[in-house]
Amino acid sequence: MTAETSQTLDRGLRVLKLLADTDHGLTVTELSHKLGVNRTVVYRLLATLEQHALVRRDLGGRARVGLGVLRLGRQVHPLVREAALPALRSLAEDIGATAHLTLVDGTEALAVAVVEPTWTDYHVAYRAGFRHPLDRGAAGRAILAARQQPLDGPGYTLTHGELEAGASGAAAPLLGVTGVEGSVGVVMLADAVPERVGPRVLDAAREVAEALR
């Protein structure tokens, strides 16, 4: 800790991170051991976080992340979208296909940013807000592939006809971005994805990841 930082805020944020990393919650005693502080400090931290709905305690006294975190999370999408747009525009214009940024939302893939090329006669209509299962389509499959460490294959995923008949997709996962799980990709009307598209999508995903760090 430095003179410019708040020890209490630091501890509160560490509590949230610890709770976010467990599915079963943590007791005051467990938090006390992990933080290296006494139980009284933990009680005060939890009480403050509970007032803001960032933490809840179940009947057994185990602390868990509260629903207030979801309200904060909803504000993340616009920030991520803004950071990704330059790389998506470049990708769409370069490939001549609809480019998109997709994030995980529960068990689904959610398109949060979409850029269509300006010079093509036709392209796939793909709208922000479109959802689909993670195990269908290049965007979701790329995210699932990233959960396997290390990544197998070329680093990008290609699909055809999984979400729309006659449409092919290519996507690469966002890597190294804390708290963001997603992918960057393109969708096009084609029987197969041209050879240069996969590596270009991979480069765009790296650009977006760098913008978000």
Describe the structure.
The longest helix is centred in the middle third of the chain and has 20 residues, at 76-95. The strands form two sheets. This protein has a six-stranded antiparallel beta sheet with strand order 5-4-3-8-7-6. Strands 1-2 form a two-stranded antiparallel sheet. The chain is an alpha+beta fold and 213 residues long. Helix 2 packs across helix 3 (39-51) and helix 5 (76-95) packs antiparallel against helix 7 (197-212). The mean pLDDT is 91. The chain has helices spanning 7-20, 28-35, 39-51, 68-74, 76-95, 138-146, 197-212, and strands spanning 55-57, 63-65, 98-105, 108-115, 131-133, 157-160, 167-173, 182-189. The protein folds into two domains: 7-65, Arc Repressor Mutant, subunit A (Orthogonal Bundle), CATH 1.10.10.10; 73-212, GAF domain (Beta-Lactamase), CATH 3.30.450.40. Residues 6-67 form the HTH iclR-type domain. Residues 68-213 form the IclR-ED domain. Keywords: DNA-binding, Transcription, Transcription regulation. GO terms for molecular function: DNA binding; DNA-binding transcription factor activity.
